[in-house]
Each structure stands twice: as C-alpha cells, then as structure tokens.
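Issue: ligand-bound run for GLP - logging full I/O for the record.

Environment: standard queue, default settings, no custom constraints.

Inputs:
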Amino acid sequence: MMEIIKVKDYDAMSEKACEFLAERINRLENPVLGLATGSTPEGLYKRLIEKYNNKEVSFKQVKSFNLDEYVGLEKDDPNSYYFFMKDKLFDHVDISLENVRVPNGVAPDLNQECEAHDEAIKAAGGIDVQLLGIGGNGHIGFNEPGTPFTSKTQVVDLEESTIQANSRFFNSIEEVPTQAISMGIDTIMSSKEILLLVSGENKADALNKLINGEVTEELPASVLQNHPNVTIIADEAALSVA
Ligand code: GLP
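Outputs:
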C-alpha cells in the first residue's frame, strides 16, 4: 500500500515529514528509526530540532540506524554520513549516541561490519519507520540499479552518475569514495513502515517510474510498490511527470 501526499514545495514536504515522524516518535514506546542523509531530509531534521526545542518531541527512547556510509571516510570526516548525522540532528537533540548506529566505513572487516549492522537492527526488534530519499537513477540507500531485491546490508560500488551527483559536497570529484556500505533492499523492505521524501524536478522521472512503472531491479525504488505501508511525501516539481 502506497499513500502519496502531494505538497507545494521543499519546505512543505519537510514540515509534513516532521509531523509524520514526530507523531511516530511520540506514539511508539521504543521507536526504532531508519535514518537517511542527503539534501532531501535536511529540512526535516531542522524542524525536528525546533520541535525538540519546543519540548514537542524527545529522542530519549529512540534508537536509530542509518542507511549507508561511504567506505574509507572516518567518522570525523566532514563528508562522512556519521558526521552529517551529528551535525544535522544528533548533536542538537536528546538522543544518546549509544543508541545510534551508522555503518562504519573504515571497519577492518567491511563484510563483518555489514552483518553487524543487520544483526543490530534485528536485535532492536526491527525498524519501525524507515526514512528514505531517492537518487535520480532510482537508487534507495546506495542500492544502485541492478541490486538484487534479496540483498542485505553490503559493500556496493557507486555508479558514475551517483559519484557525479554527490561530488557537490567534495572539493573535487576524485575525492568522492567509489564504494559505500548500504543497507540492502531486503533490509529496507523489512521495515514496518517507510517514509519516502521526494523534492525537485530532477527526481520527477524516477518518481514517475516508481509510481507508474513496473517493479524491476533496474529501478531499485520500484520495490516499494511491494511494501504494505509506504507513505510518499513529494512536492509538485517531483510529481510533475507522474
Ligand atoms: C545519496 C544517498 C541516498 C539519498 C540520495 C538522494 O547518494 N546515499 O540515501 O537518498 O542519494 O540524495 P539527495 O537527497 O541529496 O538528493
């Protein structure tokens, strides 16, 4: 089941997503969140911090698991997703850093780290709400086109288009890691509920295929059609083709 909520623009998307997530955090006794990075959820995180400052939400009982991390970047590297999460959310709310897990992109044994991520999610009782963005090529997490739907958390090679897109955060394209650890498609699909945020015209084609196209490993996000509880909050530009 996929519910699509159409909003005017990026700000309205962030606002709606904030209400949606805060409602779950307040309702669930021990909320387990799956968190995402990228430009898309930044506005949502800003608003969650405001809500926390207004005492309308607390992260004391929250556990969180991040979708992905670049291979080779240390936690304190400003381009690592661990750094992003601390900078954009964790450092500004009452979440315990012991309760957050971002895959470790410099683990000595990366495959073992991937297994450990899935094990930790299981031990926490599974993810209640998984937040997702979407890549222009339809990727979710860092699961590029062609990734098997049965995949668990694994080390992945990034597509040239993804490296291009993400190079905007780095000094030069050569600095962009070519590999990442990403939760697998199966890991993502095991979440009880999924919230997908989509903003902007450059995502319109992928979103259209996700909503109206066939379910295919060539468009990783299309797998969401098979999930029982998905909410998509998308702005007018993102829905301009669909
Ligand atoms: C990145 C991330 C994804 C994200 C997507 C879109 O590469 N690994 O988790 O959803 O691409 O990013 P953005 O929100 O910046 O457009």
